[in-house]
UniProtKB/TrEMBL annotation:
It comes from Euphydryas editha. It is found in: Membrane. Pfam families: TMEM120A-B (PF07851). Belongs to the TMEM120 family. It comes from the Eukaryota. Keywords: Coiled coil, Membrane, Transmembrane, Transmembrane helix. GO terms for cellular component: membrane. This is Transmembrane protein 120 homolog. The chain crosses the membrane at residues 129-147, 153-173, 185-202, 214-232, 266-286, 298-320. It is a multi-pass membrane protein.
Amino acid sequence: MDIEECLKEWDDLVTDYKRLETINKDYTTKLEEIGDLQASCMKELNHQRYRMSIITSALKRMEKKGVTKDERVANLEKEIMKRKALLHEIEATLPKQNSLYLKIILGNVNVSILNKNDKFKYKDEYEKFKLILSAIAFVLAVANLWINFRPLQLILIFLLVWYYCTLTIRESILKVNGSRIKGWWRLHHFISTVVAGILLIWPQNEPWNEFRHTFMWFIAYISVVQYMQFRYQSGVLYRLKALGARHNMDITIEGFHSWMWRGLSYLLPFLFGGYVFQLYIAYALYNLSYHPEATWQVPALSMSFLLIGIGNTVTTLFVIPQKLNEQVQS
């Protein structure tokens, strides 16, 4: 290519750049318009909810006064319920405020995902992230069962600290984007982060050596259960997408529909096995707390595993009747 050809290419590139400037100008204008439209939608959404609250309060006052509920009142209440559902769907298309935790970690960065396909992709990446980290944890746990090497143990525990810290951030982002994550499951991962941190600073003494094998077996078991959950939940994700069902950001067993009950019942015994394992660890650590060399980490971990085991069991037991009711109603 000689200088003449280079100059010709540059002239063509100048023309292309002007076209790029025009497209970018249109793009930035549309972005500003989108921001204005989002603000208008939020204003109208709040106005709808405010007026509906006035109507609802008036209906409640009439009910307290003993006014007979006729067909008009019944129809109005049904319409209000429908409108609430429609407003919830509209709200899902608008940006949301970050939770306090995300504001502390990320600041005021907007983490709302407005495109439906992008939401699916993010949730799918979340599930794959859990699967990959679970596989790594499984390999490290099995290695630690056969090799008594302190640096290898610390690598596994540090991986758990990083994993649960990252998990809490990702779940908070999913929550902003409409995921119906039960409060306990989020709290459970915060507690697990603390547990992993305590394990990281537990000195290598006789109580740790006695507990080490139990803990490694626990990590290996939980990793296998996590793989089973991934298989189940990834299937649910694609079925929801194919059916166009709502609540496509669900990530825990609470959020699934009655037609998925068969897969969930297959998973439940393994989940409860993990919860029993957590309670057993709490009991084993309680006994270890009386060891002459036991440090404060032992009773602290015992209480933490007891809390996690009870919380997981109670939350799942609350889910089962809800699932059975959905199955009967369907």
